[in-house]
Amino acid sequence: MEITWFGHSAFRLDFQGKAVLIDPFFTGNPAFVSDRAAAIAGVSHILLTHGHGDHVGDTLAIAEETGATVTTNYDLGMWLVSKGLKKLNPMNTGGTTDLGGFTATMVRADHSSGDIVDGTPIYLGNPCGVIVKAAGEPTVYHMGDTDAFTDMGLIAELHEPTIAMVPIGDRFTMGARTAAFAVKRFFRLDAVIPCHYGSFPIIAQSADAFIEAMRGQATRVVVPEKGKAIAV
């Protein structure tokens, strides 16, 4: 499997001929420095953790251009359908769907999920993390936006992720110390990739504090160069 980070919480997974985007926030993302055409080339699936604009991002445009199927919670999915989305695979927290060669499972996250329309907040389903499993590949857990919570232990036991994308930016998610605590307390990972930092000025600007908090651990901290695929 190859994983590409596009800044903030946007990732691409390439494995066994599949190309999957998670939370493709490109337009308006100060950390997005990649070639957009290359970032979406061959994409067949988009996975969304929750309904905030910095995670939904370019989903509608990418789905229109590529024909990709969008997998997300039912409420957010139906809202996207009302905006023109043609291919929706709806699900919700705890569910697993077979996407043809891999599965996606939505798991709990401690956050919020919605948008502001004409000054009024609208609810877009519960926030989630997403587990991606494919035979012969590492199990990937994108935590979405979240705080630490004790049920991470159940997620670890049930799904046994080996790679995790972990928000560390603070203010809207866990900060570096809490994120490192959660990784050390609940998971046995081969590698952890910090995210949700280095984009907007009001969140952490680097992964340095997280790297320091993880020092001495068996779990490898991987900080990819934005737009450059890494093999895991």
Number of strands: 16
CATH architecture: 4-Layer Sandwich
Number of helices: 7
Strand proportion, as a percent range, falls in 25-35%
Largest sheet: 7 strands, mixed
What share of residues is helical? 10-25%
Gyration radius, rounded: 16 Å
Protein name: UPF0173 metal-dependent hydrolase CH341_03105
GO molecular function, one term: hydrolase activity
Family: Belongs to the UPF0173 family.
Pfam families: Lactamase_B_2
In words, what does this structure look like?
The protein has 232 residues and is α/β, with parallel strands linked by helices. It has one domain (2-225): Metallo-beta-lactamase, Chain A (4-Layer Sandwich). It is built from 7 helices and 16 strands. The strands form 3 sheets. Strands 6-5-4-3-2-1-16 form a 7-stranded mixed beta sheet, with helices on one face. Strands 7-8-11-12-13-14-15 form a 7-stranded mixed beta sheet, with helices on one face. The radius of gyration is 16 Å and the shape is globular.
